[in-house]
Design brief:
Pfam family, one: RNase_H_2
Number of domains: 2
CATH topology of the largest domain: Nucleotidyltransferase, domain 5
Largest sheet: 6 strands, mixed
Order of helices and strands: EHEEHEHEHHHHEEHEEEEEE
Number of helices: 8
Number of strands: 13
Organism: Candidatus Komeilibacteria bacterium RIFCSPLOWO2_01_FULL_45_10
Distance between the termini: 42 Å
Shape: elongated
GO molecular function: nucleic acid binding
Protein name: YprB ribonuclease H-like domain-containing protein
């Protein structure tokens, strides 16, 4: 079983410089960012390191990206003799289009789903390259890789993503869900009387954080629980839980399931 990779890249040129978006293969790659699941590592590959990048790609069991089939792989193809299109590939934007019938930007999808988004724009990345600011360029690229990975993981754990539809927060079902979803894991922990540790996404009031909670009440899509971080009872939205794990028996709460 090969490694699972998340990929994003930045270009040296703009569409205007190469005569339009039909000339993607002329944009050239400044840096290609990858997250490796097996290595649990973010890695930025410069052009002189693309031989090694090619070995990573050929060995992968799955490559995950956003608009990667029509953009990233077309830009990257001139650097390799093997066909990138033949590699196992999940393009999140393609999945969104399959569900909705139209495209969404990575930024809007990330803001609606994760509560935070990209750290800049593709034009910023080109400016970094042309001004030899490699630190900023690599950070920007790997930030996009992290956002893409977190969207993939959210979909895998919840079975959906979220988007803003003219002011309405609406769900996008995805086809890469794996195993029990977050809500099922929460319900199982509640029924067995176990405390859980949650990775809670950023909200308007608070930044993303890790919390240990003892569940008191589950109602619809909300949890009322004692939060050990705040030492008080708090309300948590299940859709805002990015990850969950059980960590042992909780205290004697008067639990109630609606």
């Amino acid at each position: 079983m090969g490694d699972k990779l998340v990929l994003d890249l930045e270009t040296k040129k703009t569409f205007e410089e190469v005569g339009g978006d039909h000339n993607k293969d002329q944009l050239e790659v400044s840096v290609c960012g990858v997250y490796s699941y097996d290595r649990d590592q973010f890695r930025a590959f410069k052009e002189e390191e693309f031989k090694e990048l090619g070995e990573w790609l050929k060995a992968a069991s799955l490559i995950i990206g956003f608009n990667s089939k029509s953009f990233d792989f077309n830009v990257l193809q001139p650097y390799f003799k093997f066909k990138l299109a033949k590699l196992p590939h999940l393009d999140i934007l393609e999945e969104v289009y399959h569900a909705l019938g139209h495209r969404l930007k990575l930024e809007s999808l990330a803001q609606s789903t994760l509560g935070s988004g990209k750290s800049g724009t593709g034009l910023d990345a080109i400016w970094y390259f042309k001004n030899n600011d490699w630190d900023s360029l690599i950070k920007y690229c790997l930030d996009d890789v992290r956002v893409t990975r977190d969207l993939y993981e959210y979909g895998r754990r919840h079975g959906n993503l979220w988007y803003d539809n003219m002011g309405r927060h609406e769900s996008i079902p995805v086809r890469w869900k794996n195993g029990q979803n977050i809500k099922e894991l929460i319900l199982n922990a509640y029924r067995s009387g176990e405390s859980v540790e949650i990775d809670y996404l950023k909200t308007e009031a608070e930044d993303r954080s890790t919390r240990r909670i003892d569940i008191k009440v589950i109602k619809n899509n909300q949890i009322q629980a004692f939060c050990h971080l705040k030492q008080a009872v708090r309300i948590f939205n299940i859709d805002k839980i990015f990850d969950v794990k059980t960590i042992g028996r909780q205290g004697n709460w008067q639990n109630k399931l609606f």
